[in-house]
Amino acid sequence: MLSSDALSSIAYGTEQIVLVLMTLGSAAIWYSLPIALVVLVLLASLTLSYRQIIHAYPQGGGAYVVSTENIGNMAGLVAGGSLLIDYMLTVGVSVAAGADAITSALPVLHDYNLLISIILILVLMLMNLRGLHESAGFLLVPVYTFVVMTVVLILVGGMRILTGDMPYHATNSLGTTVSGMSLILLLKAFSSGSASLTGVEAISNAVPFFKKPKAKNAAATLGIMALILGIFFSGITFLNYWTGVVPTAHVTVLSQVASQVFNFSGIGKTFYYIFQFATAMILAVAANTGFSAFPMLSYNLAKNKYMPHMYMEKGARLGYSNGIISLAVGAIILLVIFNGSTERLIPLYSIGVFVPFALSQTGMVIKWRREIGKKFWHKALSNLIGAGISYAIVLILLIFRLPDIWPFFLIMPVILFLFYSIKHHYTNVANQLRLQNGEVVARTYTGNTVIVLIGNVTNVSIGAINYARSIGDEVIAMHVSTQETLDKDKEVETEFHTYFPDVTFSMIESSYRDIVRPVIRYVDLVAKASDKNDHTLTVLVPQFVPKHPWQNVLHNQMSIRMRYYLSWRDNIIVSSYSYHLKK
Amino acid sequence: MLSSDALSSIAYGTEQIVLVLMTLGSAAIWYSLPIALVVLVLLASLTLSYRQIIHAYPQGGGAYVVSTENIGNMAGLVAGGSLLIDYMLTVGVSVAAGADAITSALPVLHDYNLLISIILILVLMLMNLRGLHESAGFLLVPVYTFVVMTVVLILVGGMRILTGDMPYHATNSLGTTVSGMSLILLLKAFSSGSASLTGVEAISNAVPFFKKPKAKNAAATLGIMALILGIFFSGITFLNYWTGVVPTAHVTVLSQVASQVFNFSGIGKTFYYIFQFATAMILAVAANTGFSAFPMLSYNLAKNKYMPHMYMEKGARLGYSNGIISLAVGAIILLVIFNGSTERLIPLYSIGVFVPFALSQTGMVIKWRREIGKKFWHKALSNLIGAGISYAIVLILLIFRLPDIWPFFLIMPVILFLFYSIKHHYTNVANQLRLQNGEVVARTYTGNTVIVLIGNVTNVSIGAINYARSIGDEVIAMHVSTQETLDKDKEVETEFHTYFPDVTFSMIESSYRDIVRPVIRYVDLVAKASDKNDHTLTVLVPQFVPKHPWQNVLHNQMSIRMRYYLSWRDNIIVSSYSYHLKK
Fold it and tell me: Which Gene3D superfamilies match (chains A, B) (predicted)?
């Protein structure tokens, strides 16, 4: 299932290559074939080098861990930061491509492309919040359907070409020189196509999910996946070349190829729709890999105090839930910024993947050298090649695609700064909380003063005063009065005294409609007096709890605000008295 | 400034008419001239009838108040609900048209249309949260610039036509019969153009903002505005007809007309860019009217308990802030759903305006009849005409634009249901809070038990125990232990007892990583025991308050959760002990 990320990339891989070549006109499309071949060679070597990582880190490596352990903190954080963004891009690119697959088949929906993408993300988010990974079996269905359908597509296409049923429509025959073709353009096209290689990372991150022997199974999966991907990628690129399909704004290349191969009539039409649907589904499953990888990575970063603790909260999968929600929000923001365009997201996606690729492969080389010594070449060779390829692709992207990838270099320093600020803050707080040797702040108090906020005399306020009397040695009822409501305020005071004749009732006057400031001013005064008497001071905010949690949105805004503002004052404990409604 | 809403509608009014006519081909464009005339006649009569409302409700009427008072609750809520949605659409349509104006002038930004719209909304939101209305003088600049620039546009266009400098390029001469032209299509085009009438409502809502004599000034403003709008609308429609401009996907009709009239070279180019910028700015100001109207309407609805209290919170403009944020979020959601397309938002916008128009005019007729009796015709005539026009437009929309406006009929019942549910809930709660005659729950307690949650022994936990001893007769320190951390937990217990040898230390064991459930189970047990002893029970959650509010996001997730879950238990008061960090 983890292969979905890599396999699904064929839905946009060929198209991305062809799109770049199209700048020279459709005659240049045949170049996609040699480019696809180079991509496949790279895939093979990256696969070999990632098998090394899987064997070395059977507990689940990932670029963050490998880079941190072998190169250093900074390298690890760069890898981790890139991957955080990259998982958002994985989700964004996959759902955007999924929406493209859907709207290619159903053009009437084309205007709603972005909306479809966002809905897909929200559905995936909810499924993951509900604990998708535990019942993930059904996710295999779209993966297998897609694999079967792609095999059928390639077989039908091959048969029809061999039997001469599908005429040769290539825009230009193989090997024709196209004027204006340059190495730069080829490298650009290649860098776009290399986005198809990005799925290799997902498997090495997820080794712990495999059956035992984990590392062996994961490595085998990687091999099989690379083989399938190779066949699919070259098959589709060839079919695209043969049919002479040219990218258009509203229909994906893959959809055009499929509709040509399946002839789009009779039973072929059905096949075409199943194929498009399977494409959309595998892309959704691919987006889902981001939803398992992101929370795990943010958990690891939070454990090392580079990300907020909320990503590693104990119990009830809460930390993971925070990761899942952050990922979904991030992906939606990226989609809105880039208007749901796969074409513009993919260069960023590539740089975000190949930087950690390069770092983790470098880390592996360093590891072998340290562990094995002089003879490390034997083990490190494939990692060296992997690192070389990754650096080369990063370099190509840097030189030829800078107009597309500059946001990466804007975001990364910000992320690194955040990582270090968070780390600094946590260290700082830990120092302040630690008990200093010999210093024990064991002040003893002689009692407690309680201020109860009273609006009207209701069941809530009566309960609150009763509670206040149980904890306090001195109880003060406080009521805020404005000029306009003076008569009503006097009534409240009279009614209050019929129930509690012995409790002090303080009327705080406020000339404007701001009730927070006068309350704080009064509370501060009482706090000073209590401190002198060695009393603690409790401010009790009565509130009621509605029967259903969602009803909270209708109530208690004022007590939330009051608690918030009072929580910043020293020497004051803010407490809520909750009255539970039964209906 | 309030006129901006109406005046800005010329940025899309002509275009909407032409777009519908284009379904018959560009030859049909000349029909936009008679349609524009009809729209102007309607504008005149709507203006007259709205002047009546202004005179009758000098304290600021608006469809909600007028309909509720004169027809009934239900009619008022339909008008109010429509307007709530409609203000979101005002914001959405205006910023989308503003983004169109910008990207028409700067085509390189075209792909970022939606993003530009969203950024505009967020900027308006922040400006309004900061209290824009108090320094609103500078908003007049774009309005005047736009008025001046449009006058220049019409004058230059007129001059060039009269001097023969701008050749006659109309796609078809006036009066030519176009095959396929039907009354249905004309009515459709007319209903699209009538979106330009929607600004009339904004002024009648905002009478309180005018200088005294308010009603007279407001009525005068309405008259002047209608005159300017009439000149602008017919001028631009005529220029569009003369130049034969046809709608295209990426450039607005108004932008094409302006670039033709200003000849787009030399000084004309500068004029063109100023004009486009002024258009975008007046549209932003128009969106801003939504930001003053929405919070006021939601305040009125909240006062009558049909909307959550949070829209009428006292003090610090908080209620208005909630309204402003809700409006911005709603507008952004609408934009994303409709992909930032003015063309698809406008039919909804029209139905959402003309339903409350019709209701408030009906309300006025009823009011005159009740107040004046038999001779009410004299006063009610203009309102009767206004109501008639509004019903007619609603009917046209209903019959010919149903495929575009059906969401309105889906959303309105939901909104009405929510209004009534909220009202029902508030009434229900008020009944439960009211003290029943003779029933006084004045239970007296003999003391208080305090449970303090202790993780580690830090400055925070020591302070918390000190406080707990000041309020409690019995203090229990509670620590949750998991299998994995058993050794560390024993250490915590030992360390705790060196500081507080006399405080009970309860170790709660939990076999899994969920610490909420065991805590609740234990607390429930203690609660039962305390209740028997006539003790209240306080659960004290220690937490620390970082120096800067934003740092809260890095901390205390666990104590927030704990408080949340405990807040649902009866007979337990949850309190936080806050330790303030100094650094």
Answer: Amino acid/polyamine transporter I
